[in-house]
Amino acid sequence: MPTTHPETLALHAGHRADPTTGSVAVPIHQTTSYQFRDTEHAGNLFALAELGNIYTRIMNPTVDVLEQRLAAIEGGVAALGLSSGQSASMFSILNIARAGDNFVCSTDIYGGTWNLFKNTMRDMGIEARFVDPADPEGFRTATDDKTRAYYAETLPNPKLQVFPIAEVAAIGRELGVPLIMDNTAAPLLCRPFDHGAAIVMYSTTKYIGGHGTSIGGMLIDGGNFDWEAHADRFPMLNEPDPSYHGAVWTEAVKPLGPIAYIIKARVTLLRDIGAAMSPQNAFQFIQGLETLPLRMERHCENATKVSEFLNGHDKVERVIYPGLMDGEARKRADAHLSGGYSGLVGMEVKGGLEAGKKFIDSLELLYHVANIGDARSLAIHPASTTHSQLDAEELLQAGVTPGYVRLSDWHRARRRHYRGYRSGPVQGLVPGRVQTCHVFASRCETRYCVASVTAHGFSWHVCPACPRRLKISSPRHRHARMWVMFRGQRKFSA
Ligand SMILES: Cc1ncc(COP(=O)(O)O)c(C=O)c1O
């Protein structure tokens, strides 16, 4: 597709209309198997002499559209849909590392990935060497001749400090080590390949799905890493693979393009482990992806407003948001993100563990869930949930303090961001009363809301007589006029 605009690619890459039916929406190919034309065709497919569908555990046309769209949006060459973000993380390493090997991993990663790498992979004989990304040189120091990859998250929560992708990718390219980036929290805001990463992975469960319906993952090959030039480091790609008729992947796949890494993942790991994305879920992700550019814009806009509101609030110890950071953290955010600072906001509630829990237990509209990137607004207390398997030292390393609360997304009508709290540090607006909106309280600004009567009962409007953000200097302004609306007409003021 001759465009790099994500808005266009999200709608059109990989599928325009179904060649058989003309269906514009991507069909759900709910099938396990595909009819081979003849034995020669079947033989060619199995020998990779021809690319095509064999069995849905390894490929599926609906999943294929999603793979093509995400590869196009990221600027990669090919992708592999998987059953979850966890399987994508695991495949990204297992594809190039075996027992006795190691990889260097940022300490700032999702708790589930940490556990997978630290414990499950250790039991498989693969060592994860954790390094604080504050100093990119730590990656170089931890590298030896058994190091197969660097692994990090673009925008890890809870710290929300953008990873120094360009610096670590450059170190890796010098030493012949590919950087694998988990870009789950920053789709469209960051394209890690542009900064030198070799592989990108996603939990599509989050922003890409966007509606909290499906679990899935994606592995994307940038096609920009020379596996052959570092043949000693990557024997799994450069030596005969006994699990596939002795294929040497960098050789065998050459006629198809620089896709040795992703083809191997598909035809060996996915074939053997079977962590395939279901066609139904791929369809859901395709629906989500279509509106991702719009949603990301709104997520960022709303999260910025929330972070500004919370910043300086008397019940909040500190707010964690890239847009509020300064120094090196801000420089990294500005160097790697464009179009916004994401939809995630962290805050340290004053009062520690109990205050954090109280805040969560007081929520009305926000969901208390272990997810991010949903169209709904979400909140969680990581110390007692997502990061609960970490010990005290690991929690601190990961930036999870007792009172930390993670807020996600705020994808809601612009005027209503702040309703949904019953109590806690943020007060919601109560129907039927003119009151101070705390949104801009820290800057001594007030927005007046009035109840308006409609044929269907009460609903909310900002008073049409007031500027949307009314500057006030004394409490008497709080008795500003209240307009009551009846069927769109202003009836009286009080
Ligand atoms: C950054 C990140 N990576 C990976 C995962 C794992 O993804 P999944 O839940 O789809 O397995 C998560 C899940 O929360 C995540 O937040």
Protein described:
There is one protein chain. Helix content is 30%, strand content 17%. By secondary structure, it is α/β, with parallel strands linked by helices. Among the domains are: 6-282, Aspartate Aminotransferase, domain 2, CATH 3.40.640.10; 429-494, no CATH class. A 7-stranded mixed β-sheet has the order 1-7-6-5-4-2-3, sandwiched between helices. The protein has a 5-stranded mixed β-sheet with strand order 8-9-12-11-10. The chain has a 4-stranded mixed β-sheet with strand order 15-14-17-18, with no helix packed on it. Helix 1 runs antiparallel to helix 3 (61-74) and helix 3 (61-74) packs parallel to helix 11 (279-310). 47% of the residues are buried. Residues 413-494 have low confidence and may be disordered. The protein binds pyridoxal-5'-phosphate. The site of pyridoxal-5'-phosphate has 15 residues, from helix 4 and helix 5.
Précis, in short:
With 494 residues, the protein is α/β, with parallel strands linked by helices. It has helices at 6-12, 39-46, 61-74, 85-94, 111-123, 137-141, 165-175, 235-238, 249-252, 260-273, 279-310, 327-336, 352-361, 392-398; strands at residues 78-82, 102-106, 127-131, 147-153, 179-182, 199-203, 217-221, 316-320, 344-349, 367-368, 378-380, 404-408, 445-446, 449-454, 457-462, 470-471, 483-486, 489-493. A hairpin with a 2-residue loop joins β17 and β18.
CATH topology of the domain at 6-282: Aspartate Aminotransferase, domain 2
Specify the biggest β-sheet: 7 strands, mixed
Structural class, by secondary structure, is alpha/beta
The shape is globular
CATH architecture level-2 label of the domain at 6-282: 3-Layer(aba) Sandwich
Helix content: 25-40%
CATH H-level name of the domain at 6-282... which superfamily?
Type I PLP-dependent aspartate aminotransferase-like (Major domain)
Rounded Rg = 25 Å
- By DSSP, the count of extended strands is 18
From the N-terminal CA to the C-terminal CA, the straight-line distance is 59 Å
pLDDT < 50 runs, ≥5 residues = 413-494
Name the average pLDDT.
85
Can you list the strand order of the major beta sheet?
1-7-6-5-4-2-3
What is the helix tally? 14
| Unique bound compounds | pyridoxal-5'-phosphate
